[in-house]
Amino acid sequence: MPTVVITGAEQGLGLELARAYAASGYDVLAGCLKPDTTGIRTLVQEHPAVTAIPLDVTREGSVAALADRFAGKAVDVLINNAGVHFRKWSVPETVSFADWELTLQVNTLGPARVSFALRDSLALAGAAKLVTISSDWGSVSNHPGTAYDYCSSKAAVNSVMRGLAINWAKQGISVLMIHPGWMRTTMGGADAPTLPSEGAQLVKSAIDLATPQDNGRYIDTSGNDMPW
Ligand SMILES: NC(=O)c1ccc[n+]([C@@H]2O[C@H](COP(=O)([O-])OP(=O)(O)OC[C@H]3O[C@@H](n4cnc5c(N)ncnc54)[C@H](OP(=O)(O)O)[C@@H]3O)[C@@H](O)[C@H]2O)c1
């Protein structure tokens, strides 16, 4: 049975990715900031292949505990999905620097921390996929002119993942950055056109179709290149 690790899996896209991978016959390790949340608890009850564990991607100890579970074991797919977007500002220049720092901790350093910790397990899989859920707002050339905190965090994580794509290809690890589209989640809001369950199917299809030739690409869910 292949194994997938998903961060930020108690709600939104992460929860629906966990559901989609469980339905496809994967062992799912769902890392959750709050594993007692109803959605993930129900999924664990429905699918014996889903295990929910506490995971705060900003904390070394929490990530080390995740890596310890996989010591000597392969991870076929890692999905760095956990993310925050505070939007508490009325104009972008009134952004709180404390919120900005936390955004970088979760959206940029979090994926780096989890990826580094699971590198040996990804290498053991032979042809692993390391996926980071990015955003169209991570594109520097298409900057929306707002949300300096969120946009910089996603642009920076794209840069980190490009570096890993160069260095980890020789271990059989393919790195992919995916813009999942605008989804009706806590982050995306009620006006978004796409349900998280639909977004998860699209993201999963893009991951399924990816080959080592796609290593280092930043794509949308149709497999089109996003502008850097
Ligand atoms: N929604 C969109 O339209 C959209 C568009 C482009 C990209 N994205 C990206 O897609 C990903 C999923 O977003 P979403 O829409 O599903 O957002 P969401 O509903 O807000 O879910 C985000 C998840 O990340 C978790 N999380 C936050 N801080 C964490 C931490 N320190 N450690 C571990 N988990 C943490 C949250 O936990 P809690 O529930 O406990 O807070 C939540 O489960 C994010 O990376 C986001 O940037 C979303």
Overview of this structure, please?
This protein is α/β, with parallel strands linked by helices. The chain has one domain (3-220): 3-Layer(aba) Sandwich (Rossmann fold), CATH 3.40.50.720. The chain is 42% helix and 15% strand. A 7-stranded parallel beta sheet has the order 3-2-1-4-5-6-7, sandwiched between helices. The mean pLDDT is 97.
H/I helix tally: 6
Could you say which overall geometry the principal axes of the C-alpha atoms support? globular
Residue share in helix: 40-55%
Look at the structure and name the CATH superfamily.
NAD(P)-binding Rossmann-like Domain
Going by helix content, strand content and strand pairing, the class is alpha/beta
CATH architecture: 3-Layer(aba) Sandwich
Query: What's the domain count?
Result: 1
- Distance separating the two termini: 35 Å
What Rg is obtained from the alpha carbons, in whole angstroms? Answer: 16 Å
H and E order: EHEHEHEHEHEHE
Spans where pLDDT lies below 50 across 5 or more residues: none
CATH overall fold name: Rossmann fold
Q: Main beta sheet: strand number and arrangement?
A: 7 strands, parallel
| Major beta sheet, strand line-up | 3-2-1-4-5-6-7
Q: What is the name of the CATH class?
A: Alpha Beta
Mean pLDDT: 97
List all distinct small molecules, including ions and cofactors, that are bound in this structure: NADP nicotinamide-adenine-dinucleotide phosphate
Based on DSSP secondary structure assignment, what is the total number of beta strands? Answer: 7
